[in-house]
Amino acid sequence: MAEPGKSKFQIDLRRHLRESDVEDNLVHLICEIAEASKYIINSIRTGDLGVAGTSNLYGEQQLALDVLADRILRKRLDHSRVVANMMSEEEDEIIPISPDCEGKYSVAYDPLDGSSLVDVNLAVGTIISIFSGCDLLQSGRNQVAAMYILYGPRTTLVYSTGNGVHEFSMNHLMEYNLVQENIQICPQGSLYSPGGQRNLYTPGTEAFVQQLEQRGVKLRYSGGFVPDINQILLKGQGIFFYPHLQQKPKGKLRLLFELSPMAYLVEQAGGAASTGHGPILDLVPEHIHERAPVFIGSKADVALAEKFIRDMETKQSQKAAAG
Ligand code: F6P
Ligand code: MN
After folding, report:
1. Is the pLDDT reported for residue 26 higher than 70?
2. How far is the CA of 135 from the centre of ligand 2 (A)?
3. Are 63 and 75 spatial neighbours (Cβ–Cβ below 8 Å)?
4. What is the distance in A from the centroid of ligand 1 to the CA of 5?
5. Ligand nearest to the CA of 116
6. What per-residue confidence (pLDDT) applies to 176?
7. How far is the C-alpha of 263 from the C-alpha of 37, rounded, in Å?
8. Comparison of pLDDT for 79 and 59, the residue scoring more
């Protein structure tokens, strides 16, 4: 007989991971992160909205909620017994947990992305990138798993261990149940989420946006990276970009905590993620807090952005060479 409140047809996160033959320690790690998210939800719903009085490495003021979400995840990972190294967007350095890397994982995470949206009650999320062993400074292609949890009107968890992208939704018992397996993003979309200030876009990005607008693509931008990517994955189409800006050639978003895990998920769903010059997952970070511009979502739309950027740069260099 099914347990009360549970349909016997529901597949929860642990069962899904097990049935997908995910390695035991990785199952444990992903489930521990899912557990931590329940405490993070609670702090978002009822916690202090004020500032913590500290700032992170990027000079951004930390909210009490940023610090709390960081602490919740950090403690959980620390006690999981399967983590070698971890690093958080809210910390300055890699945090070593176990010198013995055998059979363990290293985790990069953004505990509460978009936290400045909490006071206006918009959606925020947690982003996670997982590597096997000790090394966190490697190409995103080597991730063994990536996931995010979106705290919106409902709580959504999306993960991949390299075998498709799967969506879970939290039920009234705070369990994550499978909604959709093997999410796919179609090659061309009809929505766009443009980050950064348009008057600072380079000519290539501006020409790309104009082309999208002529095509009748609709603007769908929330200001939060997790809900914006979730929209593309679950609608199965669209493009998000936070491009290189004039005077800000690396854009805003952080490679290890934000871009690599989302690029992994989107590629797993048949989409693409590019800096405008090549795949995000091919970048090898030199330092932990590296940033990169990003164009991510439907494959043909990302390729079109790359084409406009390349063509415009070629034109500019030909012009410069001609004097
Ligand atoms: O890195 C955090 C973040 O808040 C993302 O969630 C979002 O996509 C982006 O920054 C928004 O940036 P801006 O504040 O420049 O619009
Ligand atoms: Mn962030």
Report:
1. yes
2. 21
3. no
4. 38
5. 1
6. 98
7. 21
8. 79
What does the alpha-carbon distance between residue 124 and residue 218 come to, in Å, rounded to a whole number? Answer: 22
pTM of the model: 0.95
- Mean pLDDT score of the chain: 94
Contact assessment for residue 30 and residue 45, using Cβ atoms and an 8 Å cutoff: no
Supply the pLDDT for residue 17. Answer: 98
List own/partner pairs for 282-285 with CB under 8 A and 24 or more apart. Answer: 282/139, 282/140, 282/141, 283/139, 283/140, 283/255, 284/137, 284/138, 284/139, 285/137, 285/138, 285/255, 285/256
* 251 CB near ligand 1 (under 6 Å): no
| Ligand 1 atom nearest to 253, measured from its CA | 1
Encoded tokens for 231: 């929209």
| Residue located via tokens 């642990």 | 14
> What is the assigned CATH class of domain 8-180?
alpha beta
Cα–Cα distance for residue pair 295/302, rounded to 1 Å = 6
8-180 and 191-321 share one fold: no
- What are the extents of the domains in the chain? 8-180, 191-321
Architecture of domain 191-321: 3-Layer(aba) Sandwich (3.40)
127 CB within 6 A, ligand 1: no
CA distances from 265 to 15, 181, 186, 193 (A): 20, 13, 14, 17
Q: What token pair was written down for 163?
A: 């075998």
- pLDDT value of position 48: 79
User: How far does residue 252's CA lie from ligand 1's centre (Å)?
Assistant: 7
User: In the predicted model, what is the mean pLDDT of residues 312-320?
Assistant: 89
